[in-house]
Structure formats: structure tokens, C-alpha cells
Specification:
The chain has two domains: 245 residues, no CATH class; 116 residues, Serine Threonine Protein Phosphatase 5, Tetratricopeptide repeat (Alpha Horseshoe). The chain contains 21 helices and three strands. It is mainly alpha-helical.
């Protein structure tokens, strides 16, 4: 057990002893818990684990992206901005969470699935809503007298039964420990929605995001037993609520800031797509990439088309190879296609018996990626086709 983990265990044991019918603190911006209260001990446990999160190799440290996401979080949280620290984690799934001490965690899989700043603001506004309403403290007090308490502090201390805990840090799994009730999730939705609409964001943006999440959930066969939103209101219910709330807004704003969002996230697009496919959930990844293509500017279509082809090739159910072959051919004709598109296009042409076309594709790959790790392998394939270095 590390010293940090020992401190968490001690804090959790102390919490079990002192958490009782203490009144809720008035959570005004810039305030902290009173020393000796169960809330102060909970914050202490979270702060110790936040140190692990800061050192995690999964943390995205790019200053520009962090500054941008934090600026949106501050817009969503308003006066509570000074209480927030934002951590972007390289995890290829849709999730964000909010710790009771002000640590907000955003997964890169969520950023990949968003289209604009308004959608990001809706998600971060929801998380800030949990902080404002002190949902973690309420949930902790509710758990104290149940058998879930022991599991809670074991998980915080050891990451018991949780994958990748060493990389994410104990704070990274805290949301699994403190599963908010559906009423809390609804309250956070309402707080976040009101805050974002007040800043002039288009209230329909949240509905657009949840409509896509519903389609992905319906596509992903594994979602029924591994969704991160198991304790949230059902996605269809949430979508209906957001649509109704948006329709009720008088004189709604129109701000979405799609260009600003793209400028901040575009440098990471290819890496996030690689991580998305590494999950091997190809049917849902195909949907995600197809929908990204629907909204993509011309300069992004090459890279998205290539990774859509990769999703079909790796899935490899009947008919997928043919779809991948067609998509590789489309990708190499588009701006922004990665060099690997030429390599895969070459292999597809070679398999189809088009030796001249395959030679041209391999030669193009080697010319645009002269330092590629697989250069020797591709050169051997080119030599078999009668090509020249």
C-alpha cells in the first residue's frame, strides 16, 4: 500500500465515524469545508488522489487544449470557476466526471464525439452542477450506513477490481464509487442547462449530442452491460427532457462556436481515432466516424474516410473488406488523407490483382512517408510486384 493509499484508507475510516446528520454547508463560490467535518475529510481524500491524477501517464498535458477546455468549463461554472481544476484523460470513451473538491475529468472519447463548443459546455455544465449541488457529499452520507461503504473506500484506496487504475489514479475511478442517483443526475442536467443557456449557447446543441449518443448506444451491443451511464436517466428519456427544455427557452441563443472547438481539438483527431479503433468495438466506431464525416469540413474528410475504412477492415465481417477497399480508394483522392491510406490502398489493389495500381500506391506511400517504421516491409511487397526503390 502506498502512502497516498494509506491516507485514503485512514480518511475513509474517519469519514465512517464522523459522517452523520451534519448540516449541508452553504456551497458558495470560493468556500471550502469546515475542518473536522465529514466533507473536509472527503475533500482531503480526493485531494490526495488528485496528486496521482496529475502524474498519470494518461493525462493530456497539451497547454492549448487544456486552456480551451478549462475556459469552457469556466463559462459553464461561472462564479465557481475558481474552484475547478480540469484534467483531460486519454480514454477513448464518452465520459466526464466531477469530484467533490473541484477536480473535473474529461475523457478524450467525449471530445471526439462532440461537434462544437456548445455541446462541450452542456456536458461540463452538467458536471459543474454536481459540484454546486454537493452531490458527492450527499451520496457519501447515504452510503455510510450501507455495505457499499466498505467497497467504496477499498476502491478509492486500492482501485480494487478496476482496470487501468494505476494509470488513471484513484480519483479517476471515483465516479464509479459515487454513482449518483437518477434524481441527482436530473438536477445536474437542469443546473447545467440553465447556466449554459444564460451564456447564449444554442439550447438545441445538447439534444444534438444526446441524439448521437442514443444512436451509438443502440448500435453498441455491449452497451447494455458496460455503459458508463448506467445510473443516469435512460438516454431516450434524457434526450426527450433536453428537447423539451430547449423548446421552452424564449428567445434562445444560437452560439455554438464550432470553429473554435475544431481549432482546439483538430490536432488530436488522428490519435483519438486510433484509440477509438483500439477498443475493437467496430460497429459503434463505424457509426461514430460516419457521423463525424457528415459534419466534417473538406480538409478532414480524408483522414476520417481512411479510419472508417480501417474500422471496416478490422471488423472483417462479410462484405466489410469490399467496403474498406472502396473507402481506401476514396481516401487517397481526398485532402488530408494520412500516408497509411496509400499503403492500405496498395494492399487492396494487390489483392484484387491490380499490380500496376498497387505499385503506384506503394511507391506513393514510400515517397510521402520515407521514415516509416514499416518501410522495409512495404519495399519487399513492392519488389514482389516488380517495382523499383
Amino acid at each position: 500500500m502506498t502512502r497516498a493509499h494509506a491516507l485514503v484508507v485512514a480518511a475513509c475510516v474517519a469519514l465512517a465515524a464522523c459522517a452523520s446528520s451534519q448540516p449541508m454547508r452553504k456551497n458558495t463560490p470560493g468556500t471550502t469545508p469546515v475542518a473536522g467535518t465529514d466533507e473536509s475529510e472527503l475533500w482531503y481524500a480526493m485531494q490526495r488522489n488528485e496528486e496521482e491524477l496529475k502524474r498519470s501517464p494518461m493525462r493530456v498535458r497539451d497547454p492549448a487544449l487544456n486552456d480551451y477546455v478549462r475556459s469552457v468549463a469556466c463559462t459553464a461554472a461561472q462564479d465557481y470557476c475558481k474552484d475547478l481544476r480540469v484534467y483531460i484523460m486519454n480514454v477513448p470513451a464518452f465520459n466526464a466526471s466531477m469530484a467533490p473538491n473541484g477536480a473535473m475529468i474529461v475523457w478524450t472519447g467525449a471530445l471526439l464525439r462532440m461537434r462544437n463548443e456548445a455541446e462541450l459546455a452542456f456536458v461540463l455544465g452538467h458536471e459543474a452542477g454536481h459540484f454546486r449541488a454537493q452531490h458527492t457529499l450527499r451520496q457519501w452520507r447515504r452510503m455510510k450506513d450501507t455495505s457499499a461503504f466498505l467497497s467504496a473506500f477499498q476502491m478509492l484506496a486500492y482501485g480494487y477490481g478496476m482496470p487501468n487504475t494505476a494509470m488513471l489514479g484513484s480519483l479517476g475511478i471515483y465516479a464509479t464509487v459515487f454513482k449518483f442517483s437518477r434524481d441527482m443526475e436530473r438536477e445536474a442536467d437542469h443546473i447545467g442547462f440553465a447556466a449554459i443557456v444564460a451564456q447564449g449557447y444554442d439550447p438545441k446543441a445538447g439534444a444534438d449530442l444526446w441524439a448521437r449518443m442514443l444512436r451509438e448506444e443502440q448500435t453498441a451491443k455491449y452497451a447494455s452491460h458496460s455503459t458508463v451511464f448506467a445510473t443516469h436517466p435512460a438516454t431516450q428519456e434524457r434526450l426527450d427532457d433536453v428537447r423539451a427544455a430547449a423548446a421552452a427557452v424564449p428567445n434562445p441563443g444560437t452560439k455554438r462556436n464550432a470553429a473554435q472547438f475544431r481549432a482546439a481539438t483538430r490536432p488530436f483527431l488522428e490519435g483519438w481515432l486510433v484509440a477509438e479503433l483500439a477498443q475493437r468495438r467496430y460497429a459503434s466506431s463505424q457509426l461514430v466516424i460516419k457521423e463525424l464525416l457528415d459534419d466534417a469540413p473538406p480538409e478532414d474528410r480524408g483522414v476520417l474516410t481512411f479510419y472508417l475504412a480501417e474500422a471496416y477492415r478490422k471488423h472483417d465481417v462479410p462484405g466489410d473488406r469490399d467496403k474498406a477497399t472502396q473507402l481506401y480508394a476514396q481516401a487517397v483522392a481526398m485532402p488530408g488523407a494520412p500516408a497509411a491510406a496509400w499503403r492500405e490502398h496498395g494492399f487492396a489493389l494487390a489483392k484484387a490483382g491490380d499490380k500496376p495500381g498497387a505499385r503506384d500506391a506503394f511507391q506513393r506511400y514510400l515517397s510521402v512517408a520515407p521514415q516509416a517504421d514499416d518501410r522495409a516491409f512495404v519495399q519487399r511487397e513492392l519488389d514482389k510486384l516488380g517495382g523499383t526503390p
